[in-house]
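2024-03-11 09:14:02 INFO queue: dequeued item Glycogen [starch] synthase, len=703
2024-03-11 09:14:02 INFO validating residues
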Amino acid sequence: MLRGRSLSVTSLSGLPQWEVEELPVEDLLLFEVAWEVTNKVGGIYTVIQTKAKTTADEWGDNYFLIGPYFEHNMKTQVEQCEPLNDAVRRAVDTMNKHGCQVHFGRWLIEGSPYVVLFDIGYSAWNLDRWKGDLWEACSVGIPYHDREANDMLIFGSLTAWFLKEVTDHADGKHVIAQFHEWQAGTGLILSRARKLPIATIFTTHATLLGRYLCAANIDFYNHLDKFNIDKEAGERQIYHRYCMERASVHCAHVFTTVSEITAIEAEHMLKRKPDVVTPNGLNVKKFSAVHEFQNLHAMYKARIQDFVRGHFYGHLDFDLEKTLFLFIAGRYEFSNKGADIFLEALSRLNFLLRMHKSDVTVVVFFIMPAKTNNFNVETLKGQAVRKQLWDIAHSVKEKFGKKLYDALLRGEIPDMDNILDRDDVTIMKRAIFSTQRQSLPPVTTHNMIDDSTDPILSTIRRIGLFNSRTDRVKVILHPEFLSSTSPLLPMDYEEFVRGCHLGVFPSYYEPWGYTPAECTVMGIPSVTTNLSGFGCFMQEHVADPTAYGIYIVDRRFRSLDDSCNQLTQFLYGFCKQSRRQRIIQRNRTERLSDLLDWRYLGRYYQHARYLTLSRAFPDKFHMEPTSPPTTEGFKYPRPSSVPPSPSGSQVSSPQSSDVEDEEEDERYNEEEEAERDRLNIKSPFSLGRVPRGKKKLHGEYKN
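2024-03-11 09:14:37 INFO prediction written
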């Protein structure tokens, strides 16, 4: 019987929490199968890409990713090489000799994992035969007109063929194959139907039917047990896809999902309770300087301020030092991503700020890609006017500085009435006149193709947020992903996030939620919900999430109007914070990043792998009857220092950002708080092995 060394994980209180076997990775081969390997479509790409380094460190050359071949991705992301593993090399050669095109190489990301990529189009001539194989395996037929499902069948059939060739030449090594989402599921179904000696895991990141139902504005979570699943899937013409997904779930030795909320959904939609919840993480990089992320926030905030100066030229009657930048980003799913409730809350926030005569201004960015013609001319003009004013100010400053310098050299105090000549004054007056505009600053940066029916623009018209002078909330829709090469807002997404004050993601359907997780890692507070996997995860791990900059809106047990009021109060409370309170909160938010590190969350995947081995090969692997990974001993306490929740110790109306409270200084000790948090998250063991000769970098494994 093959057994690894048993590691008992102990909480801070000394009570054992769970036991995990250290896998004998030298006797195993691990394959992860996903349509998004080297192929960015959605969040699964981020999961696999960020997890690759931790997994590759642990498994070394016995870890492989399987995905589809696309020529552009291959040329830009993959370095071709020959397989070192004999079983994999023989499998690739065999398939290439039998009319397939299989590419092998290293994916040029952190960890440089091996990838096996199948050319789907090259093998499409087998489609009809493979449709017959799927029908014989699980009685699921695929319509000829569903090209995506047909491509997934080809991909799955090639995967099953490849795994058969690998197991035929594995020389006693046991194979684990993890399949992500229904797109990879046919490979799992066919592998089990052919009784291949592999241990299988199926991971759903979001159920297929759940996404469709939520997009239809159905009260999804309160009616989970009432849906006629077959009828709902059939009406949406995805019944065959749903059957592929459900068959994959029930064929797998171990079924996992990414969050507790998705586990509840999967149990009702797919009729199987997940064996393990495997939360999504990120490859967290720590700065050697503790407050470097605060410096980055200041630097990128200044660049956003430059954009705002141009966008609101002629209407820049608000103080940028008292302006907060909020944003929402992601796929353009108006209801699922919570853009509907966010806009309604912004309308109510605007009313509160105006009623209290606040000097705080809120600029909100919607970064959601939609169909556009091109940049809005008025928006481009604003940036041109800003640059022209900057150039004029710079040239006048140079002349002023030279005259001042010459006067001081002569030992004279310059005559301030004559230091600027008439031409300089004329140039400045013309510059002032050029900033006058007859229209309001635009609410969108691009020309929208469906302007009249666009959900965001239609809602903006209804609630009347037109960026007028009296509005304390300004709205900017940027219907395109951010890029450092953009002539309008030349910033990468990460730079933009670091420059903002708050990310707002009040999603109704969000199985995990990478956007608030990315904000947390960068030390930016965020709003999430208890219907997102991330929100549920933080509620479980943090005693007072708000104090750590994680605002969790209750969208599960409250009405839509109550949830909107709660979101409004969160936003209004954030606007009332002083500059120091925001700095304290950002420090706390950034400390939560250890919770989201794959070196911490990888334990859940390790548990799933050992569980599937014990089920697939019970005579060779044995798992003690212990509970799955739990984190009861790893919970961030409520901060003892003041303010426990920065909005809780404030006056009834917003105050100036530069207000400082000496008493607050005395009661807040950041070093003590940080040390206490480090102790609460510090893991008593390391999941990954560091290869011989490779040193840990400073801060690299600081959990």
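2024-03-11 09:14:37 INFO annotate: Residues 1-20, 642-666, 682-703 have pLDDT under 50 and may be disordered.
2024-03-11 09:14:38 INFO item closed
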